[in-house]
Specification:
alpha+beta, Uridine Diphospho-n-acetylenolpyruvylglucosamine Reductase, domain 3, 33% strand
């Protein structure tokens, strides 16, 4: 399944709650991680895959990502995609 979170939710909190291992060295929040990885401000509806997850931008107010859907993804061999 997927999880819908606010953009300002900390990566550390998500990792603790769900047992994930998303990196929090470069960004403290989900929105910050998206900005860091994409090097741009994504549009609503855009999807990205990195760190074994699919990120979909659900809502944005001006330049602020306010809602994101996260879903763990695996390749056909069952291995996480980076």
């Amino acid at each position: 399944g997927s999880v819908i979170v606010r953009g300002d939710v900390t990566i550390r909190d998500l990792n603790r709650r769900f047992g994930w291992r998303l990196p929090d060295e470069e960004a403290a929040t989900v929105a910050g991680l998206l900005l860091y990885e994409t090097r741009r401000i994504p549009d609503v509806g855009q999807q990205f895959r990195f760190h074994g997850f699919e990120f979909e931008v659900l809502r944005r107010i001006r330049n602020q990502i306010t809602r994101v859907r996260l879903r763990a993804v695996t390749d056909p061999l069952g291995e996480e995609q980076e």
